[in-house]
Amino acid sequence: MQDIRWGIIGCGGIANTFAASLRALDSGVLLAGASRTGDKANAFAEKHGLERSYSDYGALVANPDVDAVYVATTHNFHYDNVKLCLQHGKHVLCEKPFTVNAAQARELIQLAQSKKLFLMEGLWTRFLPAIIHLQELVAGGAIGEVQSVFASFFLGCDVSPEHRLRNKALAGGALLDLGVYPINMASLVFGQQPLKIESAVNLDEETGVDASSYYFFDYGQRRRAVLSSSYVQAAPNEALICGTKGFIRLPHFHGAKEMHLYRNGEAPEVLEFSYGEGEDFKYEIAHAMECIAAGKTESDIMPPSETLAIMETMDALRAQWSLTYPDE
User: Fold this and answer.
1) I need a labelling partner for 24 at 20 to 30 A (CA). Which of 61, 129, 200, 320 fits?
2) Sign of the alpha-carbon dihedral angle for 114, 115, 116, 119
């Protein structure tokens, strides 16, 4: 594989995870980081031994040595940042959620296609070995016909109203930040978007975003998903995939390192899929680089069409709650 030369827009915590994960691979190099706070960009560059740092995103994407950009800013900036990268001929891996709404996602996907550039949402869970194996088990009928998925992502934390999770100006709320994980779990298991969407929500009394939200999806043929997310409630973050011949339990499914396989009439199996500390994103980064090196513009694991469909699902949920963000 050729060395893909990366730049990063946004130098916060998630960018540090990307940098550490890239170092864990045998290929790829991180050249530069950009933050609108110059001191933050400089500190990030020094920490990770980068050649350059920028306080202007335009300067980073104008650098001809940068092949691809990882967008690591808050949700509300993803659309503008990804568009800037594509307009300057850069391949893009954008941290989830891809955009704030489906209209933004659709425009960016069309732009990438017109320029023949690789574009992918960075939802790291989809690339983990445990999740890849889960899909193989389901497709192979290990638990029979799957009829239900239960998944939740709860944080149970106390954060200030200005924190990105609670800040409407930053497109905060449980759905876009946390709910995207259980929704993706249902999507990859059933291989389609829901035919019927119902939901319930507890809005943050101070900021108006969804503090806790609950999603009830019907996929037809007696297949359903019961999903939830919350930054105020505490609960196990797990997924259950239930079939006619058994079920699969995934503790901490969004960063899955193991799964428990229960087949009717057989002893339970515990399957382990370990990866190094701080290497969370290495599988999605490796996949993105393989695609770019092969001249592909789309991933077959997380294609733009599925990103768009999931954004449409989340739009439908927010419409039920009358929750909109600034500039929508």
Assistant:
1) 61
2) negative
Q: Which residues contact 318 (CB under 8 A, 6 or more apart)?
A: 175, 210, 324
Burial 100-128 (b: 16+ CB within 10 A, else e): bbbebbbebbeebeeeebbbbbbbbbbbb
Total number of residues shown for the chain = 328
Q: How many CB atoms lie within 10 A of CB 152?
A: 23
Q: What is the pLDDT of residue 50?
A: 94
Residue in the structure block whose two tokens are 């505490």: 234
Helical spans, DSSP H, in 194-327: 282-293, 304-321
**Which amino acid is present at 134?**
L
Q: What is the distance between the alpha carbons of residues 168 and 298, in angstroms, rounded to a whole number?
A: 31
Position 51 scores a pLDDT of 84
- Identity of residue 168: K
Read off the tokens for 288: 């993105």
**Amino acid identity, residue 93?**
L
CA distances from residue 40 to 11, 43, 44, 234 in whole angstroms, order as listed:
7, 5, 6, 32
Extended beta strands in 137-237, E state: 146-154, 196-203, 210-220, 223-230
* Residue 94, CB-side half-sphere exposure with 13 Å CA sphere: 33
pTM for this entry: 0.96
Helix (H, G, I), strand (E, B) or coil at 274: coil
C-alpha 116/C-alpha 1 separation (Å) is: 20
- Active site positions, annotated: 96
Q: Measure the CA–CA gap between 152 and 175, rounded to whole angstroms.
A: 11
The C-alpha torsion from 106 through 111 and 114 to 118, rounded to 10°, is -90
Asked whether 259 and 133 are in contact (CB, 8 A), the reply is yes
Kindly give the residue spans of alpha helices, DSSP state H, lying in 24-178.
38-48, 57-61, 78-87, 102-115, 129-139, 174
**What token pair was written down for 81?**
């940042």
Is the C-alpha dihedral spanning 160, 55, 48, 65 positive or negative? Answer: positive
Average pLDDT score over residue span 59-65: 97
> Which residue type, as a one-letter code, is found at position 73?
T
Count CB-CB contacts under 10 A for residue 299: 22
At 129 the pLDDT is 97
